[in-house]
């Protein structure tokens, strides 16, 4: 693939190209949150073995499950529709979504050879080897022909962590944490977290922070929470971790660093969503880490139905959560609330349950949270 000159603005949408390693790139992964001071034009594209956090330059060759890629244009978030031939920069990482693409970096690293195929498996720009796509997304991933891994002039590979301060190994004193967890994606965790933030503000808490501690990074997720009233809002890509489908050895210092970053803004309380389900994305690492959990004052748990509530309680019991931290349940979306109450009674489940879209119920729940 030959280099081409920088061509200015896209004819399709008027957004600027970025010169990367001599190529005019249409979209740089939104998981790269700081782009302004990065010397993109000085990088080279080379063949090699990529690992978590390395950056890949490639050309979209086949549109599959991923039709768009999130682009950060200053503070504006744009979901760019992809077309074959688009040059993009993505981040090597794992993604273990139960509702979207599932992909892994091979144990010996991701081979990124000029002209070789890799997969785009998330809107935030995650590049990996796709292992599975659900039927409703068409069964096949979006394919990318590699130009190469981005490297410095000395040949060392560019890593996302290069653009951020080093990760910290100690969690500093923290504001109280409220965790929004659940049994799957797309079941109301973000909505619940946002309603909690709004009601905290309504009840006089002036400095509320929002974060996402687990999942696949995408700027729109944390921006959605910020718009509900959070004064401070960061997630794991803001410290250089592309996804939380990683080792605990990487996840823990990245999470400490993220929480320390948030707490430097002196919030009074932190509402933290964790994407996906409670058995993936290092959520069990959070729930079994005493350094983090000593700051958790409540868990808000969303489920798909009464049976999944019961299964989640088994895990919370195993992790020693139930005797230490107040647990609140939310009604499963698109379910009959009367039936849910009846089933919980049959199962002898007595934890408080509320509708996060009911103003009176969310107000009572937040009043109880503030007592803890």
How would you portray this structure in words?
This protein is α/β, with parallel strands linked by helices and 372 residues long. It folds into 2 domains: 18-163, no CATH class; 177-371, Rossmann fold, CATH 3.40.50.300. It is built from 8 helices and 22 strands. Strand 13 (117-120) and strand 14 (126-132) form a beta hairpin.
Quick recap:
With 372 residues, the chain is of the alpha/beta class.
Helicity level, as a percent range?
10-25%
Total strands: the figure is 22
Number of separate structural domains: 2
- Considering the protein shown, what is the CATH homologous superfamily of the largest domain? P-loop containing nucleotide triphosphate hydrolases
Give the overall shape.
globular
Task: Count every helix, treating DSSP H or I runs of 4 or more residues as helices.
Answer: 8
Alpha carbon gyration radius:
21 Å
Supply the CATH class of the largest domain. Answer: Alpha Beta
**Major β-sheet profile:** 7 strands, parallel
Helix-strand string: EEEEEEEEEEEEEEEEHEHEHEHHEHEHEH
CATH topology of the largest domain: Rossmann fold
N-C termini distance: 60 Å
CATH architecture of the largest domain: 3-Layer(aba) Sandwich
Low-confidence stretches: 1-7
Give the strand order of the largest sheet, numbering strands 1, 2, ... along the chain.
Answer: 18-17-19-16-20-21-22
- Class from secondary-structure proportions: alpha/beta
* Average pLDDT rating: 94
In terms of DSSP E residues, the strand content is 25-35%
């Amino acid at each position: 693939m030959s280099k081409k000159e920088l061509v200015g603005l896209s004819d399709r949408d008027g957004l600027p190209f970025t010169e990367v390693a001599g190529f005019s790139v249409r979209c740089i992964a939104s998981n790269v949150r700081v782009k302004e001071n990065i010397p993109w034009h000085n990088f080279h594209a080379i063949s090699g073995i990529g690992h978590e956090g390395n950056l890949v330059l490639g050309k979209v060759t086949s549109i599959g499950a991923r039709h768009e890629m999130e682009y950060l244009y200053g503070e504006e978030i744009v979901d760019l529709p992809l077309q074959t031939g688009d040059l993009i920069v993505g981040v090597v990482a794992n993604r273990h979504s139960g509702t979207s693409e599932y992909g892994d970096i091979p144990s010996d690293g991701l081979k990124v050879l000029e002209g070789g195929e890799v997969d785009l498996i998330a809107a935030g720009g995650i590049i990996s080897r796709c292992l599975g796509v659900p039927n409703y997304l068409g069964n096949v991933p979006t394919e990318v022909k590699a130009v190469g891994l981005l490297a410095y002039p000395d040949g060392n590979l560019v890593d996302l962590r290069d653009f951020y301060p080093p990760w910290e190994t100690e969690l500093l004193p923290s504001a109280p944490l409220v965790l929004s967890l659940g049994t799957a994606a797309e079941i109301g965790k973000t909505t619940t977290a946002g309603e909690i933030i709004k009601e905290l503000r309504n009840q006089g808490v002036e400095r509320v922070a929002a974060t996402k501690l687990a999942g696949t990074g995408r700027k729109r997720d944390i921006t959605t929470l910020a718009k509900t009233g959070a004064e401070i809002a960061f997630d794991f890509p803001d410290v250089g971790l592309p996804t939380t489908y990683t080792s605990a050895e990487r996840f823990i210092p990245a999470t400490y660093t993220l929480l320390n970053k948030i707490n430097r803004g002196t919030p009074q309380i932190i509402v933290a969503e964790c994407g996906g389900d409670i058995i993936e994305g290092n959520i069990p690492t959070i729930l079994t880490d005493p350094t983090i959990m000593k700051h958790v004052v409540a868990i808000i748990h969303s489920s798909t139905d009464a049976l999944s509530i019961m299964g989640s309680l088994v895990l919370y019991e195993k992790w020693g959560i139930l005797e230490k931290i107040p647990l609140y349940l939310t009604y499963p979306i698109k379910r009959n609330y009367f039936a849910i109450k009846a089933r919980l009674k049959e199962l002898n489940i007595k934890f408080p349950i509320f509708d996060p879209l009911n103003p009176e119920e969310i107000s009572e729940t937040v009043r109880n949270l503030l007592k803890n």
